[in-house]
Recover the amino acids of this structure.
């Protein structure tokens, strides 16, 4: 019943990142003068396939064809696509059961409600209905994926064609409109967070329209995917009588199907409430602390509000940004770090349900164990980076401070992509040879540090999507 | 069966800290020129009773009589004393059962092995044996407490009287030898970590003898208390036939008695191994990173090794120090933060035992829940401090950086007392009116920040002493 066993997943991500590296390496970069190093290209490939958007190379160094490759990598690495692929595989080989044979035990994201089925009185009949419904489900996910992305690309393209202030930026930077639209929409839907511009979305901070188009893309592809999927299934059930049975079956057996992203009804509502809560909290804090600050300089009230909402949505987990993260208050950084750490489907359970309760209990033990050990692993990763970068920490304490390292590691673990960056101004000594770059803080680390962060990104991409707390 | 319910404990600590504040306030400080503010005196009282040794006042500001008061507060706040007091209370009122009535359910440190008794075939006979053994146990703990402290005071006094380099420091500072010895030994045994000198143990860094006397005091009063208690009971059982029965009963029913600090045999061995592990790791890292560094300047090899062992022992959780914490490498700080966060009886379970396993399972769920929420609470506390100190964070980024705040909060939560301090040299602007002080970083915080840290210290003192992981 488990769709996502560990080894096939790590094989998938690892082989695609190697393939992506090879293709990126073969293609010409934008200019002849600058060729990224191999480690940096591999880092970019890993960052794309794990939808992290950590960067060690400026985005405008990549040529149009390289941007297309990155788009493909992001698309193939996104959770909606990979989970759909696993569903189709299960359809194609129902007798081989290559994935079905192993029941949820060692699954890294066999979530709260997936995995262990409740009492199953007629296994054979249920199995048949099961297969039928899974086929239906996989096509619903496919439709959802295609529809949301197509609509996104269309609307973004229209916006860029119509609004001159946004379109002119692309012209100035020599970016093709279609490449930019597809890249940005795929990046937003998969929650990767790469944008073809060096400055990420900072150049579009005064285009609230564009931000408002992208915000739903980010939510539909990540934290709000389960409730929207449920909603789609429900709507389809109402529309056609032929699929009504499947729709009903899926709605009622959400926990049994073994598709992590199909959550029971109560859980879905709780998830929506939790997502709203973790959106409102940083928005309020951000507005309270930064309304008149340097970081939101030059924006009018409407742009500020849209920008702050955009920024907060991006903390989970797209990582696109309209401000220089290093300029915001420490309190916001701490809250953002918590938001980045939380897995997408982290949920406060406000509603009680006996049956669900029982189902949760079993999985909970295992998940909590992982919750605690994840923090232990993160501490070890931070410690290792502190060792590899020890000299820079001493020489350049304002850039290489432990908070910045923690944020970079948590950002990589959460596959977010926020970074404190590196500033030559903050450098205390030897600023002569220093030139500010548009890539992330990790771009300034040693090869050892970069390699550790690659491992953290993989580790993060394979983490559990779920986490639940009883509330209050 | 539960000795430490929540409300009596919080009442105990709160009333004693208020009383301590009143007495400290009534007594004259050392000089007439400086009178600590009320909040700072209350902070000191809380810091003593919660055995934290966070400080907002320089220690040498306190007069001899005030030092005696602080000694009494530390003694009354130490875990060995409070748990012994609860045992005696249980003896005195076996029929009232004021504490016994409530079974482990809401106990903050009803640990892994305390609380829920295993199957109990003859409740009445067991009850009688139980009471008898508890009486015996409470006298063993009393003897242990008195013996370790008396021996400690004697040896430290002798050392100070004999070794001129150490004795002369006291004379120069105008500290009485007996006050210093009692204060330091009580402080070390309770793992409070206050020392009557401003510089804490830094002035004694070249007295490895003194450090070697204090190290066992710290271990015997905290992480190694359970195995040493077991050992004492075993030895007493061998000595007298009269107590042999009680000794046997206690050894075999360690998990049933409900005394948190009496652990089953396997668990004790695992605890010893874990303590050694979390001692060796920071020692190795510290020696590797700091052998030739500024922080250990002027010490010979033997002094360095003893000093580093002393420093590592103090991370759990005494918080005495022989180096300026702010000068050590980031990697060590990260590891020290982890060590500070770990509760005293955190244990990797290397050995398996069916019976124990089952007993653990039940408690584990609850503890993990607390483990996760503790980190959530700590994040909130850090966030709140970032808000109260937001102006200083902007104006004085090198002193008020988030890592220093995190270390201060984790140190208060772990009741450790390590601090990054505050340095006028690190201050970037307006250093004119700045004067370096010997108190902790928190001494430079606003009243709001100090109040938050008081709450964190209470919260930390009431935390669970246990935490276990299955290994590997
Ligand atoms: K991302
Ligand atoms: K302490």
């Amino acid at each position: 019943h488990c769709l996502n066993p560990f080894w096939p997943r790590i094989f998938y991500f690892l082989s695609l990142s190697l393939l992506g590296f090879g293709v990126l390496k073969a293609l010409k970069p934008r200019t002849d003068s600058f060729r990224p190093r191999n480690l940096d290209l591999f880092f970019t490939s890993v960052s794309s396939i794990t939808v992290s958007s950590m960067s060690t190379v400026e985005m405008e160094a990549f040529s149009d064809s390289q941007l297309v490759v990155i788009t493909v990598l992001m698309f193939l690495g996104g959770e909606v696509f990979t989970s759909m692929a696993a569903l189709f595989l299960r359809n194609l080989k129902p007798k081989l059961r290559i994935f079905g044979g192993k029941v949820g035990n060692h699954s890294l994201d066999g979530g709260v409600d997936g995995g262990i089925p409740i009492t199953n009185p007629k296994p054979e009949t249920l199995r048949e209905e099961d297969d039928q419904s899974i086929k239906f489900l996989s096509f619903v996910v496919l439709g959802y994926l295609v529809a949301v992305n197509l609509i996104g690309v269309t609307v973004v393209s229209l916006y860029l064609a119509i609004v001159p202030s946004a379109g002119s930026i692309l012209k100035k930077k020599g970016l093709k409109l279609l490449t930019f639209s597809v890249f940005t929409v795929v990046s937003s839907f998969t929650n990767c967070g790469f944008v073809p511009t060096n400055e990420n979305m900072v150049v579009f901070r005064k285009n609230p329209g564009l931000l408002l188009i992208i915000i739903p893309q980010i939510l539909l592809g990540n934290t709000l995917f389960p409730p929207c999927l449920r909603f789609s299934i429900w709507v389809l059930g109402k529309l056609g009588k032929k699929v009504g049975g499947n729709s009903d079956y899926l709605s009622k057996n959400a926990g049994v199907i073994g598709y992590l992203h199909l959550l029971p009804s109560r859980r879905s509502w709780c998830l929506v409430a939790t997502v709203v809560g973790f959106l409102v909290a940083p928005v309020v804090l951000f507005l309270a602390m930064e309304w008149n600050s340097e970081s939101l300089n030059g924006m009018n009230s409407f742009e500020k509000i849209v920008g702050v909402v955009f920024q907060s949505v991006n903390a989970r987990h797209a990582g696109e940004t309209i401000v220089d993260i290093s300029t915001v208050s420490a309190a916001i950084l701490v809250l953002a770090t918590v938001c980045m750490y939380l897995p997408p489907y982290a949920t406060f359970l406000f509603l009680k349900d006996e049956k669900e309760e029982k189902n949760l209990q079993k999985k909970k033990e295992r998940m909590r164990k992982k919750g605690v050990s994840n923090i232990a692993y993160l501490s070890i990763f931070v410690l290792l980076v502190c060792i590899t970068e020890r000299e820079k920490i001493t020489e350049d304490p304002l850039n290489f401070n432990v908070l910045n390292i923690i944020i970079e590691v948590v950002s990589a673990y959460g596959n977010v992509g926020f970074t404190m960056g590196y500033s030559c101004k903050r450098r205390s000594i030897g600023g002569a040879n220093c030139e500010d770059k548009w890539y992330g803080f990790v771009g300034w680390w040693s090869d050892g540090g970069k390699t550790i962060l690659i491992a953290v990104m993989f580790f993060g991409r394979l983490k559990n999507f779920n986490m639940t707390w009883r509330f209050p």
Notes: Residues B 51-53, 191-193, 317-319, 415-417 surround potassium ion (ligand 2) (CB under 6 Å). The interface with chain B takes residues 289, 329-331, 333-335, 337-338, 364-365, 368-369, 371-373, 375-376, 379, 382-383, 386-387, 390, 393-394, 397-398, 401-403, 405-406, 469 of chain A (CB under 8 Å).
